[in-house]
């Protein structure tokens, strides 16, 4: 079962301004006492938000590192972009650079789930010195078309939700294959992470439906990104950990093997019986993350 902990609530709200003037949001987890260590910047997946990192961010902060878990533009408590063509990894990466500049952070460890990993790879090209190390959660420089097609099929699509029971049923419907072990209570908690209460009282998905606009505009080209040069630059020069869901349809075992061959020094962990993407509260993921962080400044 997913892990819960009171540490998940120990954060303050942090806001920063994007280069084009949006007000963006992050959960800021203060580190426990001890030697100063590099902070962690956690970046979520396409339709998700900072709530996904509640457990792991709290645990990392308790171990002595500051954690900033962001809401990427158009998600959660961050502003929605007037121009939906700005919903792209390169723009998201520039937003993260702005966060670092405004927070006085020169270098950080990046923890990126799915799209968050792609943003990390974009940062490798944009500002490589900002990355001290990286944890890529179920994503790589190449992704399986099957998984991307599945995600594209529901992203930005209208859905009629009239109650939290409806929201829970929706969360289960689109994610059950990835988390077959979840209980009814787990799905209810999952719904609370991806929905918010709308102005009329009914739950609404906590992201701008227009985040799908660049994907639709790119068509089939969106399904075959080639980020191998960025991945090689990252994984060969900076400590890198790859976490894969054992049944992931986005990061296939074939792609993961290619990544490991391209970067033999990269650490690797697989979470059995979990699809895209591990929540990082699983024992295998937690163990790998803390072992990895122990070797980074």
TrEMBL record:
Question: Domain AB hydrolase-1: where?
Answer: 39-283
Q: Where are the transmembrane segments?
A: none
Q: Please verify whether the record's keywords include Hydrolase.
A: yes
Q: Which InterPro entries match?
A: AB_hydrolase_1 (IPR000073), AB_hydrolase_fold (IPR029058), Carboxylesterase_BioH (IPR050228)
Q: Which GO terms describe its molecular function?
A: hydrolase activity
Q: Which UniProt keywords apply?
A: Hydrolase
- Pfam families in the record: Abhydrolase_1
Q: Please give the superkingdom of this protein's source.
A: Bacteria
Q: Which PANTHER family match?
A: HYDROLASE ALPHA/BETA FOLD FAMILY, PEROXISOMAL MEMBRANE PROTEIN LPX1
Protein name from the UniProt record: Alpha/beta hydrolase
